[in-house]
Amino acid sequence: MEILSADLRNKSTISQPEAQDQGDQVEQPAAAGTTAGGAKKNKKKKKPAAAIETESKDDKPNRDDAEGDDDDDDDDEDGANATDSAAAKKKKKKPKKKKTKVTQTEPPTIPVSKIFGNKIYPEGEICDYKEDNLWRTTNEEKRYLERQTFDQYNDVRRAAEVHRQVRQYARRNIKPGMSMIDICEMIENGTRALVETNGFESGIGFPTGCSLNHCAAHYTPNTGDKTELQYGDVCKIDFGVHVNGRIIDSAFTLTFDPVYDNLLAAVKDATNTGIREAGIDVRLCDIGAAIQEVMESYEVEIEGKTYQVKPIRNLNGHSIDPYKIHGGKSVPIVKGGDQTKMEEGEYFAIETFGSTGRGYVHEDMETSHYARVYDVQHVPLRIPRAKTLLNTINKEFGTLPFCRRYLDRVGEQKYVLALRNLVEVGIVDAYPPLVDIKGSFTAQYEHTIVLKPTHKEVLSRGDDY
Questions:
Q1: pLDDT, tens digit (0-9, with 9 covering 90-100), for 97-108
Q2: Is this structure's pTM higher than 0.85?
Q3: CA atoms within 13 A on the CB side of 200
Q4: Span 173-199, pLDDT tens digits
Q5: Which residues fall in the annotated binding site for substrate?
Q6: Please, is 359 exposed, middle or buried when counting C-beta atoms within 10 Å of its C-beta (0-12, 13-18, 19+)?
Q7: Segment Disordered: which positions (predicted)?
Q8: Could you give the residue numbers annotated as active site?
Q9: With CB atoms 3.0 to 4.6 Å apart as the test, which of 93, 194, 250, 363 could cross-link to 460 if both were Cys?
Q10: Would you list which residues are annotated within the binding site for a divalent metal cation?
């Protein structure tokens, strides 16, 4: 202890130049590492108070002179590094902006492919088959077959989602006083935007039907038609959407007067009955019998008169093939008729029509719906205008149905005689409006289903119907 005190006393009396020399010598090891500096600092804490006092008086000015500049530089560098490091960390920790969910506009303009960014579209209503086909649900082979056709199902589900969004907007916004042309264009413009119309890859499946009252089907206004929707009307809205030729065909009935509620309920119930009865190996005539039984169980009172709701016996549901709205099979809505069976993989439009009239329709009024015959053979055309019109039909519509307004839209003019000629020679089919007796009211509901290997899927089902 005496020796240590003597050393400290000697150290405290070192002259100015010697202190500077020692400071220079100590400076290099200190810069090399902080461990030695840290140890030295710990030793200083154990020094007697008197020695610390002496050192602080004598050495402090010398150390400031010798080491002050270098320490300041080191502090500046350390501070700058610390600031840069903190800034870098701050940048790294900056929270990522969450992707905002795309929602549909009003009116609908955003394609469903933008709303469903992963391009996987929602399933419709999944229904089990009846008891004799329940084994399909868990059968591994059938499940494998279903996975193999996922892309096909995804295409038609995309079309179904377009249909749901467009029709829900239409149901909210169609009001009495609107012209029928405005109603159709509202639906068709929404469909084109949401499905991203692109030639035969995607687009409208067939013209928008808006048949009124005793007219049950196949009416859409031609250019110049000034018909307006009235409060007391019963309006059938029937429109289609396709993706890669896979067509969604779905319809609903719109009314404003609650007097027609039972008429609508009868037809909706009948359509759901047809969907419930449909399945693989089910006979078409059995579906028709079930539909008729349900529909005829309803009555509707209009202006003090009671009517039994009758199924329109010469209107049917139908199978749907790629780019062909009416396939080879018909689904009756009355008993009797075709005993053909439904088969695995087929698409069907289950649609029913109810009427307060005779329950039988005939052709009337000006024709608006047309379609090129699906498997027509080559037919020589003598009228040059008919040839150019046929080229337009092949280019724009192919075998998908179209109407006169669509020809106007693509720039065709003075085509009526040419169109009539194409109908006469059998290249194009005309579909005039179908009407029951005047003064009667008709209603329609329709869904598209697919008979998958494991389940039945009601593709066009929505919250509305």
A1: 666 788 999 999
A2: no
A3: 12
A4: 999 999 999 999 999 999 999 999 999
A5: 218, 326
A6: buried
A7: 1-109
A8: 238, 249, 318, 326, 351, 446
A9: 250
A10: 238, 249, 318, 351, 446
